[in-house]
Description:
Layout: H1 3-30, E1 40-47, E2 58-61, E3 64-69, E4 74-75, E5 82-89, E6 99-104, E7 111-116, E8 130-136, H2 140-172, H3 175-239, H4 243-249, H5 251-267, H6 275-287
Parallel strand pairs: 1-8, 2-7, 6-8
Antiparallel strand pairs: 1-5, 2-3, 3-5, 4-5, 6-7
Amino acid sequence: MNEQDRAVELKVGAFVFLGLAVLGALVVQFGRVGEGFKHYYPLTIEFPDASGLLKGSDVLLAGAKIGRVSEGPHLVRGHTGVAVPLRIYDFVKIPLGSKFTVGSSGLLGDRFVSVTLPKGEPSAYVAQNTTLQGARETGLDDLTREGDLLVRDLRGAVQKIDATATRLHDEALSPENMQNLKASIEHLNNATGALAESSKKFDGILDKTDATMSSAKQAAEEAKAAIADARQVIQSATEGKGLMATLLTNQELGNDLRALIKNLRAHGVLFYRDTGAKIDINARDQNAPHRSGGGR
């Protein structure tokens, strides 16, 4: 083998070695092999449900990887949930009050632990070997379970509606009830027509009553005026100086007038005699007391 071929082989070997070295570096840097050279501190998160979360799942902070799940979930005491051990990079400090949730990269994607930072400036950070409480985001399986429950409820509601509609059709909308309803509507229509006719007659009665009331009011006003005139005449007769006032106030003149009328009735105008005066004188003589006949 000449010197030229040996130089080509050396160049090819050096290029292949350099490519393998770069590939190895990439694998160490971006693969899980490089995680063996990093330092971590442990945390334990208790979730009420950690379905789909496996060993080696990522722990993300605002989308950046800060650790991984070191072991699969295991039950806690009292069976109130599961505990999930985490390994967090030692250079990452998680503020107190951060929220740990089980998230999903898609509807059917892998599960991971998501860390949500609290608002404001952190006052303290989570210490290592600390046990915190986590939550679970709603995923496709949760939606499937809720959808199944909803479908069951809808089926029950549809069955109740169907039973109610059947009962309504068989009982409330039976031919007998429909005939009764039709008869009731006809009676109501007839009653409405009769009421309209009665209303017209009542309007005429009201008009006549109004006219009668107007006439009665006018008659009352006229009677009131007549009474006032009569009162005025009587007052003038009693307070005036004429014949009427004299007849009403002079007793003697009244007696003479009665005697005149009595004589006219008894004898007439041609044979008039004043017998009334004699009768009155005799009456007065009879009514006078008798004097005793004793000697003087």
